[in-house]
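Researcher: Good morning. I'm working through a list of sequences from a screen, and I'd like to move beyond sequence-only analysis. For each chain I'm collecting a predicted structure so we can compare shapes side by side. This is the next one on the list. No need for commentary yet; just the structure.
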Amino acid sequence: MQVLQVRSGVFDPEDLSVLGKIYDEVVATLPASMRTPVNRTEIAKLVLGRIAAGEAELVLLRRLMVAIASVA
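Model: Good morning. Structure tokens for this chain:
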């Protein structure tokens, strides 16, 4: 995965693809009962909020969400 370029909230198609995959992976780790619209929205906010911090932060976010889902 390449480092995402942040430019005024406008993303390249490749960046959107990466973000979409991360979002999908995180949502898929949740038990079905936790895949609510509210939780999906919060996950999207977390993913978008970590973009400025870079790729490493997105990897950590993914690991955190998998860990949380595994104990839920």
